[in-house]
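Support request, please re-run this one:
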Amino acid sequence: MIELTTWSIWIIIFLIRLTTWSKIKSGVESMDLDKRQMIMQAALEEFYLKGYEGASTNRMTKAAGVSKGILFHYFGDKRNLYLTVVDECLKHYHHILTSPSMDLSEDLFEAIKQLSEQKAEVFKSNPIMFGFIANTFMAMPEELKSDLKRMKQQMNKDSIQLLASRIDQSRFREGIDPERAIEFVLLSLESVVTKQMSGMYEDNAVGSGLSTAFDTKSYLDMLRYGIYRKEG
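Re-run finished. Output below.
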């Protein structure tokens, strides 16, 4: 029979308490994550329906089933909560569009067409998230403009890097900088999509005309082949 010393007993007690604490901590962290996600979902829906100015943290906490103190504990204030929701939505889209299963063409214009079609499908699958993001960037809240513009610039930078890493850059004419060419094409198409979505935003039809808004084939053809006839 093994004789336990006082020191051995203390070690056993310590290990038991450590295991118990780890389980409790894991459970608390899981509950914290659940609460955070519930607040985020409630905030997404509230911001989508009411906009930044009209959104109420009281309605958010009621929908999430948490106290107002919990909301401010996680997010600080409404401003930070809004920016966090925007950031999470953009990360969600970026994760899907950069998934290994997204087999992009090596041709720049075909790859952009694929991404546009995938974006439309993703947006259709979650109209509230899409409506929120569309509203956010079509009519940026004044006090958040600098932050949102920074996010948009980062989003564009990520898109350029994604395409630059996937396409066959040898197709560009000699002397053309690939990343600048990609940026030029993306900015041109962004202007087209923004114009088409502006009309939908004004008509409150952002969710119903996605296919039209992201149908940029004719513009891609102009960018690919040019608009003038070759002389001679």
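The chain has a mean pLDDT of 81. The domain at 23-76 is CATH 1.10.10.60 (Arc Repressor Mutant, subunit A).
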